[in-house]
Automatic annotation (TrEMBL):
Ni(2+) binds at residues 77, 80, 569. Pfam families: NiFeSe_Hases (PF00374). Its cofactor is Fe cation; Ni(2+). InterPro entries: Ni-dep_hyd_lsu (IPR001501), NiFe-Hase_large (IPR029014), NiFe/NiFeSe_hydrgnase_LSU (IPR050867). Mg(2+) binds at residue 575. Fe cation binds at residues 80, 572. The lineage of its organism: Bacteria, Bacillati, Actinomycetota, Actinomycetes, Kitasatosporales. One of its GO terms (molecular function) is nickel cation binding. SUPFAM superfamilies: HydB/Nqo4-like. Keywords: Iron, Magnesium, Metal-binding, Nickel. This is Hydrogenase.
């Protein structure tokens, strides 16, 4: 039972081979993909996504001082820890009933914009594009590489490469021109981040109530000077990605089916508008719609809701095929939200994590990741939403909503228009992302450089507004508060790779319950109690295989492209205490292509 739309039939007798990739390389954490490959029909017949380690932050958060939540939860991940700190602070600010000063919001927004630029660049250019580089394509699809050598790059006047193969060569690991340039850009964007949030990736200057960064003009000009040095790289990256992905569609008819699943996207919104946000639950619908990335649940290409209150209340954490005991017969932590709406026992506010280690059985339980679902009341279905790797859902939701209308980014007519200023060599440029036909591997990857451009454009606005506040003398960056005896809060944000929410319950001034829900549990979830596969499973299962290798030397590049298109990251889904006296040895191998010559 899948959520993916049916695909054409006309089949040969199956030639099934069990193949697994565990752990998946080029990510953090223990993600395993177990498949049955039908080589006769050149497709993936079956797929299971597993996580082999326990996730336990919700267990040891209990009893902690809630003011420490941001610092603790940033350690969930060594990649997007700042996203957790930011989201935790949002939840705490709701619980404490406070609103940071406008300058603090701009500084937070600038830090998060730098993080999007940093993380998406290093992931796309140094990790994802290894699957599309010359060395990999030569090993898996030599016929395709030969065609790429004969195919002119349509946007060569922007990025400077003559053929598609030239672009592929530029992404060869450790040697390629773009591969090395992306590392430099990642260093610069990391410096931009540290100017605002103090330390990467666990911020030292973000707190509930505001920030500790001093809003001196030099801080903003240092950020701006670095941004302008990379603005042309961003323009080139969009052009290179468009050329390569358009080539794949043209050269490999049917490649749109790789990683395609039903359009079920979730976006929780990013970058607060200081003029609108007050962090009150009662007004969450209003300030949610004012975010500079608009929240939304998208089903079959249609916007179901952009109301954060509805998004929050319809979250359901299901066990399905995961290693946990149920909690639904326990006493709830929260029976009603602040508006009097009933809160389901499977909502994160009421979740209790009860791990039950056991043997992996694919016809039973096989993963430490639970199965978050979004309950669609209209159809009475629990939907396995995915994040599109983050950027696809963000751009799709923003485009459908049509609410973002800023100096540099506008959502209009199902498109997102991004204006970037003149750089060191390229003129002022307007990029336009349009809603694609499919939610598939190539479109998840294509959206990523567009969102880097989106983040750069929004950073320009945040810088301008920050300097306006400096000139007006409005430099306050912190709001005092008291921790209440009892309260609940929820924060909604976008981690780099997609939806992020933190759900907090305070009793006796301590944390009574705390559950962060990053993108990984949504994307990496196993089959739920209805048999519905999680997004990784659903996107891989049934996809065609275009790799030219047979079973004996099969590398699974099409499968890896699909999984990595979601920007998989397992730290937020996997944590385990190994026990006294037991040593875990971890050996890291070089990225594919280090010695391909």
């Amino acid at each position: 039972m899948t959520t993916t739309e049916s695909r054409p039939t006309g089949r040969k007798p199956a030639q099934l081979v069990d193949m697994s990739w565990d752990p998946i390389t080029r990510i953090i954490g223990n993600l395993g993909i177990y498949t049955k490959i039908d080589f006769a029909n050149r497709e993936v017949a079956e797929c299971h996504s597993t996580s082999s380690l326990f996730r336990g932050y919700s267990v040891f958060m209990k009893g902690k001082d809630p003011r420490d939540a941001g610092f603790i939860t940033s350690r969930i991940c060594g990649i997007c820890g700042d996203n957790h700190t930011t989201c935790s602070n949002y939840a705490q600010q709701m619980a404490y009933g406070i609103k940071p000063p406008p300058m603090a919001e701009h500084i937070t927004n600038l830090g998060e914009a730098a993080e999007y630029m940093f993380d998406h660049t290093i992931f796309q250019d140094n990790l994802v594009f290894v699957d599309f580089c010359e060395a990999m394509v030569k090993a898996t699809n030599p016929t395709l590489l030969a065609r790429a050598e004969r195919t002119d790059a349509p946007r060569g006047e922007i990025h400077g490469f003559r053929t598609i193969a030239d672009i592929m060569k530029a992404f060869n690991p450790f040697e390629g021109e773009v591969y090395k340039e992306a590392l430099r850009v990642s260093r610069v964007t990391r410096e931009m981040f540290c100017l605002m949030e103090g330390r990467h990736v666990h911020p030292s200057t973000l707190y509930p109530g505001g920030v500790g960064t001093m809003p001196q003009p030099s801080v903003f000009t240092d950020y701006l000077s670095r941004l302008m040095h990379i603005i042309d790289f961003i323009k080139k990256a969009v052009a290179m990605n468009d050329d390569v992905f358009d080539f794949f569609y043209e050269a490999l008819p049917g490649y749109e089916e790789v990683g395609r699943r039903r359009i079920l996207l979730g976006c929780w919104g990013a970058w607060q508008d200081p003029a609108v946000v007050d962090y009150r639950y009662a007004s969450m619908n209003e300030w949610g719609k004012a975010m500079y990335v608009t929240p939304g649940v998208i089903v079959d290409g249609k916007l179901v809701t952009n109301n954060l209150i509805d998004i929050n209340l319809n979250m359901r954490i299901m066990l399905g095929s995961s290693y946990y005991d149920d909690w639904v017969n326990e006493q709830p932590f929260v029976t009603h939200d602040p508006l009097g709406n009933p809160v389901d026992m499977r909502h994160p506010w009421n979740q209790t994590t009860v791990p039950v280690p056991q043997k992996r059985e694919f016809d039973g339980n096989y993963s430490w990741v639970m199965s978050p679902r979004w309950y669609h009341q209209e159809t009475d279905k629990h939907l396995a939403l995915d994040t599109g790797g983050g950027p696809l859902a963000r751009l799709w939701s923003t485009a459908l909503n049509g609410l973002v209308d800023t100096r540099y980014v506008k959502a209009v007519d199902g498109k997102v228009r991004i204006q970037l200023p003149k750089g060191e060599s390229l003129p002022e440029t307007t990029l336009e992302w349009s809603i694609p036909k499919w939610s598939n591997t190539l479109e998840r990857d294509r959206a990523r450089p567009y969102f880097v451009a989106y983040a750069a454009a929004m950073a320009l606005q945040f810088l301008e507004e920050s300097m306006e506040l400096v000139r007006a003398g409005e430099t306050k960056v912190f709001q005092d508060f008291e921790v209440p005896d009892e309260a609940i809060g929820c924060g909604f944000h976008e981690a780099v790779r997609g939806v992020l929410s933190h759900h907090l319950v305070i009793k006796d001034k301590k944390i009574a319950n705390y559950h962060p829900y990053p993108p990984t549990p949504w994307n990496a979830s196993p089959r739920d109690i209805y048999g519905t596969p999680g997004p990784y499973e659903d996107a891989v299962q049934g996809q065609p295989i275009f790799e030219e290798n047979g079973p004996d030397d099969f590398k699974g590049v099409d499968i890896m492209r699909t999984v990595r298109s979601f920007d998989p990251c397992l730290p937020c889904g996997v944590h385990m205490y190994m026990g006294k006296g037991k040593t875990l040895d971890v050996v890291h191998s070089p990225t594919y292509g280090a010695s391909h010559g």
